[in-house]
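Exam revision sheet. Question 4 asks you to relate a sequence to its structure. Input first:
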Amino acid sequence: MNTWTPEEQTRLTETHSLVLTAGAGEHPGVEIGMALVDGRLYVRAYRGVGSRWYRAAREHGRGRIRLGSETRDVLLTTEGLRPPAGLDAAFRDKYGPVADALVAVPEARAATVRIDPV
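Answer key, structure tokens:
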């Protein structure tokens, strides 16, 4: 299992959003909020499992994230994923009340993706 370094975890915590691109090639990415729980990085599609980028993440299982000028290849896990306890709270802590409307609803919970470094 690949993990984020302490320095990367700090940067992910302090950064408001990342750009996620699912699959290989030069596809456009989606800017999205993220949360860390126990050193693991998670994102959610607020439109649910029908979201285009979520379907691409599920299909490809690999992609890239960009934080500022840095790009990193990543693994995208959707199948059999059980989001950890505290993920909703982590999103609320980071984004405030808007998190309840965007990522703490059943549709978004069903479209959770864990992002691991390659």
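Marking note for examiners. Strands lie at 18-22, 30-32, 35-37, 40-44, 62-67, 70-77, 112-117.
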